Amino acid sequence: MSTDHAPEPRTLTRRGLTALGLGGLAGAAFAAPASANNDQGEDTLAQLAGAEPVATVEDLRDKAGTAPGETVYLLGYHLDTPGRGGGLLFWDAESTADDDGGTVFAVAGTATGRWRRQVESYADLSWFGWRGDGEADPDDATADSGPLQAAIDALPAGGTIAIGPGIVLLRATVNVLRVPITFAGAGHTDSQVTGTQILVDTGAEDGFLLTGMHGGGFRDLQIRGTGLTGGSLVRTERAGSEKDDGNYMIAFSNVRFRDGYNGTTLRGCNTIRFQNCVWNTFSGQHVVLLNGVADDNRADPIEFVQCGIAAGPDNTTTDNVIVDGLGGSLKFIATAVLFGRHGLWMRNTTGTAALPKFVYFEGGGFENTHGVSVLLERGAQAQFANTYISTDGEDDLVRVGPDFTGSVTFAGCVIRGAGRNGIDFASKRLTVSGSLIGNNGRTAHVDFARTIDAIADNGDGTFRVTTAAAHGWETGDRVTVYDAGGTTAANGKWTITVVDDDTFDLQGSEASGTYSGGGSAYRHGAGLNIREGATRVVVTGNAVGGFVGDGTNRQDYALVTAAPDILVSANDFNGNHAGGLLMRTTPTAETRISGNKGTGDVDGWFAARVDGAVANGTYDFPGALYIAGERVTIVKTALAVAAGGCSVRFAVNGEGATGAVAATADPAVKTITTAAVVDGTAAPKRIGLLVQSATADAADLTVQFGYRRAG
């Protein structure tokens, strides 16, 4: 049946199709509805009323139109899937366009004239013959890649490709060049049989390659691989060298990526956003990579909002997020990074000019990684706020190398459970504030020890230890050697110099004895380890120690520093096995350590000297007779007497205020077990030294009392 004239082409809406139903459409070919809601609806329904039903595309390609604008209604693409891929088509009597299998259909034996769909900015993949069952002839090299590519090509100015529930099987890379295409699914899911599934079976090639794409993206679907040996599920690249040849403003929303080799590779792109997306189970080099090739590529800025990125528990050599070369301005909001090897790795392997840029991470965090959760080798700036950082490996949670040129900040973070250090820092400008750091040094235990094969003199009079297998340690690590026979002087805690994979020297040791067998060694870890050469380190207001009831705390010190340029104040360093602070360098004018719990640090000293005979009584501190306008706590004393003996106490208003500490001829620094708080805020307090129990021959007493300001 044909119309008397060519109607103005109109778009058949999905809403209209739903209202009519399949039976209604068949009937519409013979009778027009009595009424419609609006003019557009009247025109559309009039077209349906005048459209002859055609069962399949095969039938359509055998039926030439008889007049320009003649309409037919395709009941289904294939006979065995009625209703799928159907719709209204019109006869374009002047067209010689190529048959694309979805929006343009040629008729056998007809050179001029084509059946066409009305297409503006929308196409349905089923229009191109997609069945949705994921089945394909084993000899079909493209499977559903061909129909999907044809759908993309049918939208030369961009638009949306609707992919209903079902499986799209890709055996060849799908390319999008320059146009904004949005792939819209019927819903993302963790199931493999519901929603929209794009199954990538491309071997070592990419699933999707987006080239110079401005706008568009993916939403409400799952992209998963099968048997992949290379490539990425989605990769972007530049279309040329001009500024506009990059990818711009691509959005991924409610997308799940899974079971691939590499996940997402972003190069030559700007303003890319992932929201509510999940990656899991990848066995290649990375899950997400920003740049990674050359200095003329960039991935910046990139956002991950409420996402999950996980290589999977079995893929312990796959890195989760790599920022390489000109990648950066990377923002993570409420995003979890799980499993795999390294969690976030900033590096430079692409050239001399490229440095990763700013990374900001807030909320969410890292867990169950087997390498370093946050590995910052090269870069300009990294900030972490309210972030949880944990690991399952033997390495550090956070490591900042000496070539990281910018600043690193942790604020309000939880950093716990590393095999070695919570934070290992060797660069410039580290600030850690308001964070909880503990239960690190997890592998400082005999369960994680390396078996010793030999101990000998290294030729310079120092012990050299050889392990039965590679130890995996670094110069500067602190280890405990135990149960070594013959060379018993090697047993104890040492700092090591690594010689090779299975050999290290014990710094400061004096080799002696002949090794007779046995022995093992394990490595210690601290909350924060500051390496030699680091500068401008600020650690304030943190709790660095064991967590009660939360994991195994084996970190020996809260903070170990081989660099003097540090400000360490107002921290709680209680709960560490060896102590709060270990200085491995000589303090300088830049060293500031004050007001920390769990350490022996003090804010100042009151000093007194009694020359000659020492008698019981009270003595003044020269130049410090009163404490006025402030409160101080007396916490430590350093004392010695040249002859005889006595005990000393800190005195307030002539009365002993601290417990007694014995002075002998051996100089000693002692912590005062019964500390005294001297409150001079309301009224000045006279202070002094109280000597008691002096022997008759006591002479030449020197005493210092260390104090902390209490505010």
Question: Main traits of this protein?
Answer:
6-stranded parallel β-barrel, Pectin_lyase_fold/virulence, Pectin_lyas_fold, Elongation Factor Tu (Ef-tu), domain 3, 711 residues, 44% strand, single chain, disordered N terminus, elongated, mainly beta
Largest beta sheet: strand ordering: 9-12-14-16-19-22-24-26-29-32-41-44-46
Shape: elongated
Tally the helices: 4
Structural class: mainly beta
* Major sheet summary line: 13 strands, parallel
Distance between the first and last residues' Cα: 96 Å
The unreliable regions are 1-40
Mean pLDDT: 90
Strand content: 35-45%
Helix content range: under 10%
Number of strands: 57
Rg, Cα atoms, Å: 37 Å
Organism: Glycomyces artemisiae
InterPro entries: ATP_synth_asu-like_sf (IPR023366), Pectin_lyas_fold (IPR012334), Pectin_lyase_fold/virulence (IPR011050), TAT_signal (IPR006311)
Signal peptide: 1-31
Keywords: Signal
Describe the protein's topology:
Layout lengths: L13 H15 L10 H11 L2 E3 L2 H4 L10 E4 L12 E6 L11 E3 L7 E3 L5 E3 L20 H9 L5 E4 L3 E5 L3 E4 L3 E4 L11 E5 L7 E4 L5 E9 L6 E6 L9 E14 L1 E5 L2 E7 L2 E5 L3 E6 L10 E4 L2 E3 L8 E6 L5 E9 L5 E4 L11 E11 L4 E3 L2 E7 L2 E4 L6 E3 L3 E8 L2 E3 L6 E3 L2 E6 L2 E3 L11 E8 L5 E5 L10 E5 L9 E9 L2 E4 L13 E4 L4 E3 L4 E6 L2 E2 L12 E5 L4 E4 L9 E5 L8 E3 L9 E10 L3 E3 L6 E2 L3 E13 L2 E7 L2 E2 L4 E3 L4 E12 L5 E8 L6 E11 L2
Parallel strand pairs: 1-2, 6-7, 7-10, 8-11, 9-12, 10-13, 11-13, 12-14, 13-15, 14-16, 15-17, 15-18, 16-19, 17-20, 18-21, 19-22, 20-23, 21-23, 22-24, 23-25, 24-26, 25-27, 25-28, 26-29, 27-30, 28-31, 29-32, 30-33, 31-34, 32-41, 33-42, 34-43, 41-44, 42-45, 44-46, 45-47
Antiparallel strand pairs: 2-3, 3-5, 4-5, 35-36, 35-40, 36-39, 37-38, 37-40, 38-39, 48-57, 49-56, 50-56, 51-55, 51-57, 52-53, 52-54, 52-56
Helix pairs in contact: 1-2
